[in-house]
Specification:
The protein has 361 residues and is an alpha+beta fold. Helices cover 27% and strands 28% of the residues. The chain contains 9 helices and 19 strands. The chain has an 8-stranded mixed sheet with strand order 1-2-6-3-7-18-8-17, with helices on both faces. A 4-stranded antiparallel sheet has the order 13-15-9-16, with helices on one face. Strand 11 and strand 12 form a beta hairpin. Helix 1 crosses helix 3 and helix 3 packs parallel to helix 9. The two termini are 36 Å apart. The relative contact order is 0.19.
């Protein structure tokens, strides 16, 4: 098949969904995207990095906007090929794996690359692989290591689903594993043991009573959260356990560094005799909406923006000093679901907003 970049981005979304592209199996969709960009766009330098496709213009326009989207999806759940339902209870809806996360965002970017005749900015397009699996496999990380000059821009737009709202920055995430040790004993003689699970009583009480901080940055309100997300322990139904683990997830506002977030969690559990190990962390991303290129995007979107609570790859751009936002069709709450679906009017709306922003007046 050949992707038709000049087609309605709704139809282009369906065509992208119909190409199975589960993480680590993106070669076919990368081939299709590369071929379409080479044959149907003008003025772009185009290269391939593994199963990522990169394209950029060098027109000397004085500012550069990066449009970035991942090509992979989570495993298919009987939801490929795509299916359009014109008269559903929710209106005109496109169903299928990746319709939300994030083939519709990719379709908008590809369509605009082929159809904008009077660009206001130079463009960089980054369609990358392996976003839905371990961070060590993420194609953006490989591009940053091997092709860092391709990640220069005045503002980056990540096509993650945001319901057609600009979601600025993102919160950081931290996972900590707390461990407790005790003495094993027969539960009929429990006084001879020391129950490791019981030692989590105090920390669970503190977490239940925790009051999340809210922070306003550039008009975006971020709300933090500290939650126990997994607990394990126990030997048998008649044994006092001598070991237990508790995983805690801290979602923190982007005004904190990872080290500051770790320090805060330590403060919350201070005084408790528990092991403490950071098992995963990713920094947040400041919204940077006061930068001229980002402010112009907010204006083009009619002033509609909000904070991004979840972590996304905008964090990678923020670490490079590039203000970044999430902006794409689709409800993020429907991402990865068997009934993943997107209202087609959101695809049209995002296309229109970005066309206005990327085009010269």
């Amino acid at each position: 098949m050949t992707l038709e970049l000049h087609a309605d981005p709704i139809d282009l979304t369906a065509a992208l969904v119909d190409i199975p592209s589960v993480s680590e199996d993106e070669s076919r969709i990368a081939d299709e995207v590369e071929q379409a960009l080479r044959e149907q766009t003008t003025g772009f330098e185009i290269i391939r990095s593994g199963n990522a496709v990169l394209a950029r213009t060098n027109r000397g326009l004085g500012s550069r906007v990066m449009l970035a989207g991942h090509l992979d999806t989570v495993p298919i759940a009987d939801n490929v090929p795509s299916r359009r339902e014109h008269d559903s209870a929710e209106g005109d809806i496109l169903h299928g794996c990746g319709t939300v996360d994030m083939k519709s965002g990719d379709a908008v970017f590809l369509h605009l690359a082929a159809t904008i005749d009077n660009p206001a900015h130079d463009l960089t397009l980054v369609f990358y692989d392996c976003e839905e699996i371990a961070a060590s496999r993420n194609g953006l990380g490989r591009i940053e290591r091997e092709l860092p000059e391709w990640l220069n821009a005045d503002v980056a737009i990540l096509g993650e689903p945001s319901g057609g709202f600009i979601e600025a920055g993102c919160q950081g995430t931290l996972r900590v594993r707390l461990t407790a040790s005790g003495t094993r004993a027969h539960s009929a003689r429990s006084w001879l043991g020391d129950n490791a699970i019981h030692k989590f009583g105090a920390v669970l009480n503190r977490l239940a009573a925790y009051r999340a901080r809210t922070v306003d940055i550039d008009g975006c309100v971020y709300r933090e959260g500290l939650q126990a997300v997994r607990i394990s322990g126990g030997v048998a139904g008649n044994v006092v356990p001598d070991a237990a683990e508790l995983d805690v997830n801290f979602r923190f506002a982007p005004d904190r560094s990872v080290d500051e977030a770790v320090g805060h969690v330590r403060e919350v559990i201070d005084g408790l005799d528990l092991g403490f190990e950071v098992t995963d962390s990713s920094p947040g991303a400041l919204p940077g909406l006061n930068r001229p290129a980002a402010a112009a995007l907010i204006e083009a979107a009619g002033g509609q923006f909000r904070a991004k609570y979840g972590w996304t790859d905008v964090s990678r751009f923020s670490a490079l000093g590039i203000p970044a936002v999430n902006y794409g069709p689709g409800d993020p709450n429907l991402a990865h679901k068997r009934d993943e679906r997107v209202p087609v009017e959101q695809i049209t709306h995002v296309t229109q907003v970005l066309r206005g922003y990327l085009s010269a007046g």
